[in-house]
Amino acid sequence: MPTDELSLVFGALADPTRRAILERLARGDATVNQLAEPFAMSQQAVSKHIKVLENARLVQRTRAAQARPCVLDTVRLDAAAGWIAEHRQVWADRYDRLDEHLATLRPRKEAR
């Protein structure tokens, strides 16, 4: 089981149910019952997904009277997005260099 934060985040995001839960929480805080409503699965199964999101520190449970609503924590999402953006730029730079190299080869090929 991965222990570094980025691996935990990407592991949590790998599941479509967990991504749907995050999308719901992006619209506002929600209880486990509210999060479980759109899914054809037990509340216990949804709770397990929420636990994975909590372990990845993408979701926090707060306390409001008797309820413990879940709250989206975007800090780890921002870190994951930053990692993706950084690596996207590396690959974009490599493709740009490849394009430049291919452009230098075209005149030679056309001259034959």
From TrEMBL:
Database matches in Gene3D superfamilies: Winged helix-like DNA-binding domain superfamily/Winged helix DNA-binding domain (1.10.10.10)
Domain named HTH arsR-type: residues: 1-92
PROSITE patterns membership: HTH_ARSR_2 (PS50987)
GO molecular function list: DNA-binding transcription factor activity
Cross-referenced InterPro entries: ArsR-like_HTH (IPR011991), HTH_ArsR_DNA-bd_dom (IPR001845), WH-like_DNA-bd_sf (IPR036388), WH_DNA-bd_sf (IPR036390)
Name this protein carries in UniProt: ArsR family transcriptional regulator
Protein source organism: Asanoa ferruginea
